[in-house]
Specification:
With 139 residues, the protein is of the alpha/beta class. It has a single domain, classed as 5'-nuclease (Rossmann fold, 3-Layer(aba) Sandwich), CATH 3.40.50. Helix content is 50%, strand content 14%. The protein is built from seven helices and five strands. Helix 1 crosses helix 2, helix 1 packs across helix 3 and helix 5 packs across helix 6. It is globular.
């Protein structure tokens, strides 16, 4: 089983079926359902995801969507260590830094999936697009 952290952007792609990006992220969730992958989302991503999807649906529908997400993925906490490392990381986007450093506190996670790989050049774990992540399962 491959353990992958998901960036907020790919989570939102999946939840609101944002074309053309949602197809490949949906494949990752299918691989998770088949027991071939374990997908992780940071606790902070729930806040940011709610903020975006709430603009497209009412509160009850947004919470229902997040409940489903919570069932099909694992949540990674944002620890004091992750905040410390984020503050000292040199990342220009603090949200990206917190997401990545939160993922890195979980030693099971072997890669981070995002559409914005260029934003994570300093990562100590492999960063890949959804397309590249799917390729890991075709080896």
């Amino acid at each position: 089983m491959i353990h992958l952290g998901l960036d907020t952007c790919v989570v939102i792609d999946f939840l609101i079926d944002r074309k053309p990006f949602s197809r490949e992220v949906a494949e990752l969730f299918e691989l998770s359902q088949k027991g071939k992958a374990k997908l992780y989302i940071t606790a902070v991503s729930y806040n940011n995801t709610y903020y975006i999807i709430r603009k497209l649906m009412n509160h009850q529908a947004a919470v229902k969507t997040l409940r489903h997400l919570h069932v099909i993925s694992e949540t990674v906490e944002t620890t004091n260590e992750a905040i410390h490392d984020s503050l000292n990381s040199g990342y220009s986007d603090f949200e990206d830094a917190v997401t990545l450093h939160s993922m890195m506190t979980n030693k099971k996670i072997s890669g981070f999936v995002t559409r914005n790989t260029k934003d994570f050049k300093k990562s100590k774990i492999p960063v890949m697009t959804p397309h590249q992540a799917i390729g890991l399962f075709k080896v």
